[in-house]
Amino acid sequence: MTVTYSRRVADAGLGTFSHLLLRWKGSIYKLLWRELIIFTTLYYSFSIIYRFVLNEGQKRLFEKLAIYCDRYAELIPVSFVLGFYVTLVVSRWWGQFESVPWPDRLGALVGAHVRGTDEIARLTRRTLMRYANLSGVLIYRSVSTAVYKRFPTMKHLVQAGLMTAEEHRQLEELPSPHNKFWVPCMWFVNLALRARTEGRINNDVALSAILNELNTLRTQCMKLYSYDWISLPLVYTQVVTVAVYSFFLACLIGRQFLDPAQGYAGHDIDFYLPVFTLLQFFFYVGWLKVAEQLINPFGEDDDDFETNYLVDRNLQVSLLSVDEMYDTIPLVEKDKYWNESEPQPPYTAASAEHRKPSFMGSALDIRYLYTQIHTDTDTQIQTHTDTDRHTHTHTERYRQTQIQTDTHLLDPFPRPQLKRANRDCTFSKRWDLLI
């Protein structure tokens, strides 16, 4: 589903984005071609009626109507309303992606703290991770049509091995009318407490770390549930849709090419193809279609999230991390740079140009070069030396070739001297500032 083109735009060059315009899957053309055909057909229908069906009197009335529609259609704030709406939709879309639950960290904690190589320990680790994945699948079934089609009933989850028959029975018998995606999380907590009691989890700190990560996973699931429950206000979506479509309904008449012989302003040339009107339709309605696609990324559009892939990937990775990868370590041996203080991995010929020296700071590249030109006897500079405390009079002029600067340390500004005002003054406690 997700259309990835990162490799195509890895390097900026001539026509980098232009190559993407030729793609069909996930493109704006695929989203927009039906609406564009309908708009073009209606536009040419009005054009044919105006040119070949109406009589002269009716044409004059149509021309006045076209000028009226063109003038007042610009009062519809399409750009403002649509731009703000799309910004909200894109922010919401990215927030939903950041709420996707990933069990990787939880799998690492379970594999690290639930110890034991016997069958019971292995069963405990695998069951803990299966519960975490089951919670994610249950929430995906609630928000994603693709996952729901894959697991339309709870029995399909039992057949897929994500849930046992006994777990299904307990889940169905639970007297709750609400979504039960949180139930496997409670099974996880109970099983983790049993493992702590049996000594398979060594200490309470490890147990707390596991449960905190589980709560993070449960929070992510709850966010997905909340995004699905609370949509953008319906009235805002309706306002945007009405604004866009009413604007282009007015353009069907207002953007017609009128008879140049009538001398209407802006109608000096008669064309048959409204190029810029079609471009405007392409941009505005395309913008609306982008919002339409991103407002719920858990459907089956080209750019929607790969929820079924997430189900498969998370289950496999989490079970591998606590089972096959448990206490499995490659042979520990000295690395290639054992006796080198500055290891330098080699470069291939294709990547040699990317080898750069370490950046030490931009200010360290500054170089000063002073050249004494001549002595000006008319100007005297008094300098005070620390060695002999003598005063010398001399003049120098320097020219700095890169940056003109004075390297002498300057004394701070002298403090202003304060003198008590005359006692004869009206205010006896006034102070005068001497500059």
UniProtKB/TrEMBL annotation:
Record's bilayer topology term: Multi-pass membrane protein
Keyword Ion transport attached: yes
Descriptive protein name: Bestrophin homolog
Segments forming a coiled coil: none
UniProt keyword terms in alphabetical order: Cell membrane, Chloride, Chloride channel, Ion channel, Ion transport, Membrane, Transmembrane, Transmembrane helix, Transport
Region described as Disordered: spans on this chain: 380-399
Keyword Ion transport in annotation: yes
Catalysis performed (reactions): chloride(in) = chloride(out)
